[in-house]
Structures are given as C-alpha cells and as structure tokens.
TrEMBL record:
Keyword DNA repair: no
Similarity comment: Belongs to the peptidase S41A family.
Pfam family, one: Peptidase_S41
Keywords in alphabetical order: Hydrolase, Membrane, Protease, Serine protease, Transmembrane, Transmembrane helix
Lineage of producing organism: Bacteria, Bacillati, Bacillota, Clostridia, Lachnospirales
PANTHER family: CARBOXY-TERMINAL PROCESSING PROTEASE CTPA, TAIL-SPECIFIC PROTEASE
Family matches, as Gene3D superfamilies: 2-enoyl-CoA Hydratase, Chain A, domain 1 (3.90.226.10), 2.30.42.10, 3.30.750.44
Stretches that traverse the bilayer: 20-43
PDZ domain location: 122-191
InterPro entries: ClpP/crotonase-like_dom_sf, PDZ, PDZ_6, PDZ_sf, Peptidase_S41A, Tail-specific_protease
Signal peptide interval: none
Name of the protein: S41 family peptidase
Length: 417
C-alpha cells in the first residue's frame, strides 16, 4: 500500500468516525426533541403538571385549569371581591379567603369525607399516617356534637402532662372553633413544630376548661398488648398507620413466646386508617386468599389478596363497637367471613368507602371518595357496619368490661376443644 492509499484509508476511517458521532448526536437530539414534544402535549392535555417547587406531577387522568365550573364563577367572584374592597370596613386575608372557597366548593358535594387540605394540613396528614410527627400525643376522633374527642392520651406525651384525659372534648384550637371542621383539618391545627405551644379549649363532663400544651416529637404506639389470665393474649389496636403492621407482628411474636393459647384483638374506638396496612395485617393473620375488594364508580373491581403463607392458628375473639370504623371494619369483616375469629360487641360504624388523596401542584391536596369496599363474601359495610357474632352491650359499671368477659368465656370454651 503506497502513501496515497494509506492517506485515503485514514481519511475514510476518520470520516466514518465523524459520521458515527454525528449520527449518535442526531439520534439523541431527535429523541430528546420527541420527548420534549410529547411532554408538552401531555402538559397541555392535563396529564402532566408542574408544581410551585418545580416538582413534576404525572397522573393517569387528564385535568386542566380551563375545565370545570371555575370559568363560570370567576367573574362573579371578582365582582364580589371588588365590592368587598370598596365597602367592607375590615381587612381580609386573601390567602385565607381562597382556601375557604376551595373548602366550601368540595363541601357542596355533600360528602363529609371529600375535603380540601391546605399545604400545611396536607403535610400534617402525611405525617399522621407515618406514625411519627410533632404534636401533643393524643388519639382523637370526631364526636357527635362536632368536637374532637380524645380517646387515647399517651401517658408519656405532652397532652397528658398538660391535663388532658380520655373522654375530653376539644372545641377550639388557638381560638379557632373546630366543631365544624373534619377531623384531619382539626388535628392539623393541633399539631405543629416541636417546642411551640397550642392553646386548647375543652369540655370534661360538661365543665369547660383550657390547657396550653407544648408540642413535642411523638412516636405513635398504635398497638398495645399484654398476657392476661389463662394464657389469653390481649392486643389493642388504636388505628391503622404505616407503623402498625410491624407493631402488630412484634406484639403477636411476644405473646406467642409467652405461651399464648387464645387471643383477643380489641378494635373498639378504632377509627380506621391506611388500607394497605390492614391488608398486610390480615395477610399475616388469615389463610392466603381474598381479603377485601373495592369497586369504583365505573364498576372496576380491585382485589387485595393475602399471599405470605402465614396464618394464626389459635382461637381469636375480635372486640368492636359503634366507633370501630373503616379499616377496623375491613379487619372484622374479613375475620368473620373466614370464620377466623368471633366478632363480639356492638354494630360497627358503617364506613365502607375508600378515600384517595390527590396532591395539587401548590402543595395542597384533595381527599375524595373513589370507591366502595366489600368483604371477601361481598358484604357492603357502608351505612350498615359489621354485625357482631355475639352482641354485647357495655353496662354502666365502669369497672366491668362485659365485652371482654364474653370474649374470655368464648375463648375458654374454644381452648378446651
């Protein structure tokens, strides 16, 4: 090969290399451009939203700010706002006004479980389901009169130290009336940064009183247990949070190590919680199979099944009452359908609907009812509740637990078989 041929070959090789590089760059550019175009299409069609913090939200349904009743009411709201600016004699917090408009709009649907959360309220809601947060250390639920009822004031937490006790009803938080709020919104006001103080007005036995509570880090203990007489284990679940599954398994292991022969699972006054949590707990308790299923507005069915191969193999009694709701009813209903435990107590609350949290791009969120759930045998609990196998009303004697006594009698008979 002469020098000219070598030079020509070198030129061909370098030309091929440059062509390959240009081809790769062109291909990547086209792919990136196609991705940008596709993202732009999804953005304008409402499948992609950009949050105020730059976070990208991708959702499986299209929503845009141009749809809905907003365009119909915007002019009227602006007219009302102009009149208020001209004639209303006091100042107004426009941010608060906006948040109240959003809350009122969702309230118009007439579903008390469909609500709007401000960014702060949504953050508190997220914290409340993890089992770790800053607050006063009390499990609460709504009472019939709208107040927030304290059902479990942790003895090692700020609420108890400040004087709050089980059965107290909180009516205002830092001067704000919470009797017309949903539970999550009211609790969001009670929680706050570590070291800050919250002023609570409350009622105990029709006597009003006030306390100032200094918030602290709270580690929620949702499961309590102990071994009682006749080798009967007692396990109480206050709510179904992310931390509850492991606490439940740890409690069962401790009771089994102590020689447990029978078990009482107490779900009385348990308002519910996270669906995935109760499914995992039932998976650990029941034989493999269908645990619960949901159906949405279009009739689409979603099934939740147990697959871990673990099952409790001892006599079990489950205690319920009128405040056992939602996830508690899923637990009781599945245990009943599998004939795995005797349900003892009174008719449960009857909340058989599923709520889904949808975050919005400004840090706020809406919680909306998206489906109904059914027990393995198809029981529709909503508005009806779970009917106990053995109905037992609690007596007036506070020192006697008639439902517990009935559970012990049932377990003693089963343990002797």
């Amino acid at each position: 090969m002469n020098e000219l041929e070598e030079n020509q070959q070198t030129v061909k090789k370098s030309g091929f290399g440059r062509g390959l590089i240009f081809g790769v760059i062109a291909g990547l550019s086209i792919a990136i451009l196609a991705g940008v175009v596709l993202l732009n299409v999804f953005y304008h069609k409402g499948f992609v939203h950009i949050g105020v913090n730059g976070e990208i939200y991708v959702q499986d349904t299209a929503t845009t700010e141009d749809e809905g009743i907003g365009s119909e009411v915007e002019a009227k709201l602006n007219a009302m706002d102009s009149l208020m600016d001209l004639f209303y004699m006091e100042d107004v917090d426009t941010d608060t006004a906006k948040e109240m408009i959003y809350k009122a709009y969702l309230a118009s649907y007439g579903d008390k479980y469909t609500v709007y959360y401000t960014p702060d309220e949504y953050q508190s809601l997220v914290e409340s389901t993890t089992g770790k947060f800053y607050g006063i250390g009390a499990v609460c639920q709504k009472s019939d009169d709208g107040a927030v009822l304290v059902i479990d004031a942790y003895e090692d937490a700020p609420a108890y130290a400040a004087g709050l006790r089980n059965g107290d009803k909180i009516t205002t938080v830092d001067g704000t009336d919470i009797t017309d709020m949903d539970l999550s919104s009211a609790v969001a006001l009670i929680k706050g940064d570590k070291g800050t103080s919250v002023h609570l007005d409350a009622i105990r036995d029709e006597t009003a009183f006030s306390v100032d509570v200094v918030r602290d880090e709270i580690h929620t203990q949702t499961v309590k247990y102990e071994m009682r007489e006749n080798q009967i284990g007692y396990l109480s679940i206050s709510e179904f949070d992310d931390v509850t599954t492991q606490q439940y398994k740890d409690a069962l292991q401790a009771l089994e190590d102590a020689g447990m022969q029978g078990l009482v699972i107490d779900l009385r006054d348990n308002p519910g919680g996270v669906l995935d949590t109760v499914v995992k707990m039932l998976d650990y308790t029941l034989p493999d199979g269908l645990i619960v299923y949901t159906e949405n507005k279009s009739g689409k069915r979603t099934e939740y099944k147990g697959t871990d191969g673990h099952e409790l193999d001892i006599p079990i009694a489950v205690l319920v009452n009128g405040n056992s709701a939602s996830a508690s009813e899923i637990f009781a209903g599945a245990m009943q359908d599998y004939d795995k435990g005797e349900i003892i107590g009174t008719q449960t609350f009857g909340k058989g609907i599923v709520q889904t949290i949808k975050p919005l791009t400004d840090g706020s969120a809406i919680k909306l009812t998206t489906a109904k759930y059914y027990t393995p045998n198809g029981q529709n609990i909503h508005g009806q509740g779970v009917t106990p196998d053995i109905t037992v009303e609690q007596g007036t004697d506070e020192n006697e637990d008639a439902q517990w006594n009935t559970a012990v009698e049932y377990l003693m008979e089963e343990m002797q078989k």
